[in-house]
Amino acid sequence: MAPWEQFAGHKLAIGGGPNNPEFYQASSDTELLETTRYTLLKAAYSKLLNIYSSFGDNQSYNGCYVELKNLETRRLRLILASDPDFTVLFRYLLNVFLKFFSNYGTSPALALVFSLKVILAFAVVYVLVPNAWPTSSRDRLLSRLRQILMLFRRREGLSVSFKSNTSTVDHLQDYQAFLADLNAAPNQIPTIFRAVAPRIYSLALAGERARKWVDGFLNVLQSPWSSMPRSKQAMVSLLTTLYVICYLLWHLLLRILDAFMVSLNAFSTLGFGGIPFQGVARYLVVCEGLVGWLMLTIFSVSLIGQLLR
Questions:
Q1: Domain total for the chain?
Q2: Is 162 a member of any domain?
Q3: Which residues constitute the domain of residue 90?
């Protein structure tokens, strides 16, 4: 059997016999509206589909099926223009969507790429709207800016930002207490636990240790900024600017990751607790869930169809 590439481009036609010498390819709008000959042409496409399916030629099957659905979509558009009907409109819009989303169910990869674009599009919206995320909320950013402002008027230096974080200090103090308890009665504790537990504890506090080291290294504000020499003011201004820029970039990165995770969660309809938005954005999350449910369903059907064919 010849591959579909030899017939592609609306080369398939019916007719040419003694009773019907003209070939019919449904190439014009007038021909598309001829119900009888259009039905016969569809039957010819269907026979080709059955042949390609029996030969296991999936690529030719997909090409033939897409061209048949393109003809059907064109015909539905013409019928809708001459005789508006909700059923026809629904079928036409469904065909248009399937063509755009997965090439009529023949391309699961296209459906996957389109789904990713939808997730990213909603994520961009979520980045721009107010939220209640603890890692990247507006209040967290403003609090850090106020904290930096206070540093210019205090003598303790940047280490005050570490000392004010009582949870960090408590964790490090708890670690020292843990080591003291561990060494207080070594004969009562298994050797393997005494060897492994401190390393696990220390690894869990690695981020807090690094932050303490950075705060100590940047401890340059030993006096109010206004009383510093100009050279030191310039250095402090540069360090503060770099710190603010890095923090803003970090804050933006966390916000983007939070938005992407919320969008992915909503699209895949996994569900979560409270929606971290107010106003219109809450309804966008619900809409994304419905869109994701529809697209994932079509993707699943498309993928299974390609695997079983």
A1: 3
A2: no
A3: 4-106
Question: Which of 106, 125, 143 corresponds to the end of one domain?
Answer: 106
Amino acid at 213: W
For residue 151, which of 137, 141, 163 has the smallest C-alpha distance?
163
For 46-74, the DSSP string reads: HHHHHHHHHHT-HHHHHHHHHHHHHHHHH
pTM across the whole model? 0.64
Instruction: Say if residue 52 is in the same domain as residue 95.
Output: yes
> Apex CA 29: angle with CA 24 and CA 30, to 5°?
65
User: Among candidates 162, 130, 106, which has minimal Cα distance to 255?
Assistant: 130
Give pLDDT tens digits along the chain (309 positions). Answer: 678 888 788 778 887 566 666 788 888 888 888 888 889 889 989 998 899 888 888 888 999 999 999 999 999 999 999 888 999 999 999 999 989 888 888 888 888 888 999 999 999 988 888 777 665 566 666 777 776 666 666 555 444 544 555 455 566 667 777 778 877 877 777 888 778 887 887 777 776 667 666 665 555 555 566 677 787 778 777 877 887 888 888 888 888 888 888 888 888 876 666 677 777 777 888 888 888 888 888 888 888 877 766
DSSP 103: T
